[in-house]
Task: structure prediction
Amino acid sequence: MSYRYRQYASSLTTSAGHCTIPCRRSFTETTAALEAAVPLLDRTYQSHLDVGDLVAAGEALQKLPTLNRFGAQPRNFGPILQATAAAAAATPRQGDETNGSNSISSSTAHPATAMIKEALQYEIGNPHKAAQMVRLRGQTALYAPIRVALLRGCLISSSTGRVISERVWFEYDRPSHTMGNTGVRGVDGIARGLDEALHEVLVKAAGLGPETGGVGSKI
Result:
């Protein structure tokens, strides 16, 4: 990865409580690793709720793993990004030399443009833990399940159109920031537990390994 692209990517983490985890694996490999590590939500509890068996539903909820995916397929923003870029390129605005892209200043003769080419949004969490938090603090319902974005960005030569370098990374807001810090012990404890579990699984999916678990940039 070029220095200029690292410099651009680091500027993406600016808000408090936000976390960025760079990936050593490709976008496809990281996608597969994440989906293998976080199971699809088992909705057995819903069948119990449908017949009014609240006790059985509660027991099924308690058996869920700490982290679950809330959809078989993540939201895929890739085609929308491509369509938006294509439309911008076809109808450039006067004075807009980047055609809607994020231009990176460069002292070289060939400036480069950074573009996000692929983006997946996952919803990850645990409905049982979410319910526990909501019972104690209603506002936590705004942030459950947790949204995690997997992104692939490219640094593209403005003169040749060639890809100079690529980067794959995760973006998410830490549960301990969005749902925690309430002063309610039960809520804050659950949020911290989700924070730790999510960071661990994303680091592993990124191919960083447990020995480099601290690589994610926390701000």
User: Anything to note?
Assistant: Residues 1-14, 102-109, 211-219 have pLDDT under 50 and may be disordered.
